[in-house]
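queue> pop job 88
queue> type: inverse folding (structure -> sequence)
queue> payload:
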């Protein structure tokens, strides 16, 4: 099939949606997922209104049977997945004194286990074709553990390790695996409503623009293989790190 597919796991209202729109602009048929598929309608409508092609799927990234069915359906009915983006968020603070095993495990499942399940299934197809791009969204928690973020840091550290291992195994098979650290507040309704002082920094380019984040994902996909980037850090110029 001539159709090129970009699959975005975790296509929310900010970064994931912006990445989907960016690849749709470049002629990709975009497949987007969220646990609640009904929430994808505005994104799919916006992509189609701009002349792109999009399909929305309700899928739980933590459930192996759902992941296998999702990838098989896309590859069979829509086209080969050329670009895979794992962008599931799991950022939820909690003191280690109050953290529960159930909650810690759920955050790890979202941040790391889902990346493994989806990445494995897509990698199987890409290896057979001898090409592909796989990008995983990280955070500052991928680099350091902060107070009250033990679960999130554990999951994001695990995702980075997964991506690095995949890059070393799959790179020689012509599959570009990258890890993008997004460090800083992003221009979202959540930040605007809950952190107005932080959101006010938008006027000074002090928070991340989702469209600009998406441009970097496109750039990674376009890199020639003699100079592939594995890890890319994105943060506003005023962010401390």
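queue> result:
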């Amino acid at each position: 099939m001539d159709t090129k597919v970009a699959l975005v796991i975790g296509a929310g209202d900010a970064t994931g949606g912006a990445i989907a729109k960016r690849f749709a602009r470049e002629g990709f048929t975009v497949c987007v997922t969220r646990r609640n598929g009904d929430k994808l309608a505005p994104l799919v409508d916006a992509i189609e209104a701009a002349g792109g092609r999009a399909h929305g799927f309700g899928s739980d990234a933590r459930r192996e049977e759902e992941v296998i069915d999702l990838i098989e359906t896309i590859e069979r009915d829509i086209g080969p997945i050329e670009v895979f983006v794992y962008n599931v968020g799991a950022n939820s603070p909690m003191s280690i004194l109050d953290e529960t095993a159930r909650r810690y495990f759920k955050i790890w499942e979202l941040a790391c286990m889902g990346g493994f399940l989806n990445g494995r299934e897509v990698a199987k197809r890409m290896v057979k074709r001898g090409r592909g791009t796989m990008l995983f969204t990280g955070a500052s928690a991928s680099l350091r553990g902060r107070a009250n973020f033990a679960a999130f840091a554990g999951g994001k550290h695990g995702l980075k390790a997964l991506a690095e291992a995949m890059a070393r195994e799959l790179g020689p098979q012509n599959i570009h695996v990258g890890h993008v650290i997004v460090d800083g507040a992003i221009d979202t309704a959540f930040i605007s409503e809950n952190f107005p002082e932080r959101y006010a920094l938008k006027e000074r380019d002090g928070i991340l623009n989702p469209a600009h984040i998406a441009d970097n994902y496109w750039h990674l996909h376009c890199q020639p293989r003699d100079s592939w980037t594995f890890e890319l850090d994105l943060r506003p110029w005023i962010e401390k790190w």
